[in-house]
Amino acid sequence: MTEPVQLFVTCLVNSLYPDVGKATVRLVEQAGFRAEFPLDQTCCGQPAYNGGFAKEAAAMARQTVDVLDETEGPIVVPSGSCAAMLTHHIPDLVKDDDSYVAAARRVANRTRELTQFLVEVGHKAAPVECDERVTYHASCHGLRWLQILEQPKSLLDEAGVTRVDLPGEDECCGFGGLFALKMPELSTAMMDTKIANIEASGADVVVGVDVSCLMHIGGGLRRRAGAIRTKHVAEVLAGESE
Amino acid sequence: MTSQLTFRGRIQEAFTAGVPVAIETATRSRYQRRLAAAAAFPEMEATRDRARDIRSEALRNLDAYLGQFVDVTTERGGVVFFAADAAEANEYITELANAENVRRVVKVKSMVTEEIRLNTALEHAGVEVVETDLGEFIVQLAGETPSHIISPVLHKNRYDVAELFAAELGVEYTDDPAELNDIARKHLRERFLNADMGISGVNFAVAEDGAIALVTNEGNGRLSTTAPRVHVAVMGMERIVPTRADLAVLLEVLARSATGQKLSVYSNIVSGPRRAHEPDGPDQLHVVIVDNGRSATLGSSVAEILLCIRCGACLDACPVYRHVGGHAYGSVYPGPIGKVVTPSLFGLEEWHDLPAASSLCGACQDACPVRIDIPRLLVDLREQTVGHASRSIRTGLAAYSRLATRPRLFRLATRAVALFGRLWSQDGWLRRLPFLLPAWTRRREVPAPATQTFNDWWRKRGA
Ligand code: SF4
Questions:
Q1: Is residue A116 located within the same domain as residue A8?
Q2: Residue A83: domain span
Q3: Which of A104, B106, B247, B382 could cysteine-pair with B195, CB 3.0–4.6 Å?
Q4: Would the pLDDT of A157 be above 70?
Q5: Which residue of A has its CA nearest to B364?
Q6: pLDDT score of B426 more than 80
Q7: Which residues pair with residue B198 across a beta bridge?
């Protein structure tokens, strides 16, 4: 009997990027685990938390903890920022709620961002057909709260993908959740710098571990009608979906 | 000091005027230098931890350490004055200047005197004030305010300075950095010699022996605090460290974090006025300890910000700062540190939009030598001002949270969105959403919802 892994796919993947979820399933299975998906999962509450809506965030956090704490095995998240929400911010949000402190801790300890998980379990990326040049953008929360940087790059390299360096790879793209709506001029100014760096890298595809940042960068690239596209790292590593 | 605009208004203004390229290049290169300095110092991480512990201890027992500092300083013949706010501090200093017949003051760059607007107060009292730090001198000459806490003139390049000098100092135009430096030096040197009072800030004050540490890279600190008869040191109330050994640790991280140097060029230690056997030094030393909102901050949920040693590292690391420059913050304290300090010292209601102006990327915390969790503090301030969020955001989030805590309803709602996706998307993108999110779609397209949610796909797959 293979060990179970719980997928927490995030609300954005559920509604906007289900292919990223499917690719995550394939990768977890390739790594030798049995993928499970707790059906009652919704949203970890990150947008509310970042925006200062503590009450709403705590409600979503508790819902997430309830759903995940009754399952078993590692919790794998195809998003650095939602993983950081589970490992860092949810325990902080419920720290005064005695009935949730222990459960939030347990969930936090079981949680891994996808590439972090794959590297930790010693998964070797399967070679993929990809004749495009990719570059890696390091989304902030994964980078600074979970130290996600080398994992996705080494997996991409292992898979034989042509990868070029991104100047300023660790600089924020300007997404920031509600920030993107509250301060659109600033958010898109930061996006412009990111896009200029992406263009300078010579890549055809920007790869990241967070669909939220990719949605923002991709939305900007798309408006410019250029040829550069965005892809989640899972989609690249798992190859094209069947 | 507050401009009437909101932060968003000020950045729009800054973008229209064009944010100087100098800011971006200077912050980026200093950020790199700092990384190199840290890499070349194997104990950097451990030293950061120690520095944080020292600062935390100082704040935990602030009253006791301040008391100790006052006792030692008084014993040595110094005078200490506690100022509850800016007005009290300015009044004390201007009265002192009057009583001592001071006509000219030389100043060493200090953030706290900027904070209390001391120059304005002195000038009102008829005292001439000369800033002696090159950057601060330029800012003063131009009638501007500093745009960075350690490089006040980061927003100007040397051609700006050349024009300014030619116009204001009556010298011939030159944009040669060495010559510009020389011009300033000559101009300032004269003023040192006939100044009656020197005013400095305080980087750290040592509780155990009353030492006042003043760090500069230009040597103006030493001259300003020893040449004039009266030295006034103005310090933020939190600037205390327990021991000399602690001071050494903090100076290590300060220099590396501020400029990527091992040590600042001049670490000036002042302890009391000149004593009988000493050849030089001021006749009088006054230490003005400024509260101005710090006690309240100490008792608040963002007390951690008082650990700050004003190194400026978070400004250089910050992508927002790099894009908008210091003046857009509208306060003497710009950048990540300013987004917490400004609202907590000067009023959260008035400054509620500063904490909102961050993507919470965490680069500041990473750079901060004392590891202040600035993102968490920003979230905390956002929680306190959540009422300022626009109605659409508030109602939207409340509705979303209600859905997300009811899984079955959530499934139905996301399924409905998927249906919408089926109707709308041709190529997977939407150029705009009717009535929705113009802030997003003005410069970005929106991905269309998928035609089937992951949740539904999984159920079908299992079946
Ligand atoms: S918050 Fe930290 S990085 Fe920023 S100025 Fe203060 S000590 Fe330096």
A1: yes
A2: 4-120
A3: B106
A4: yes
A5: A144
A6: no
A7: B106, B231
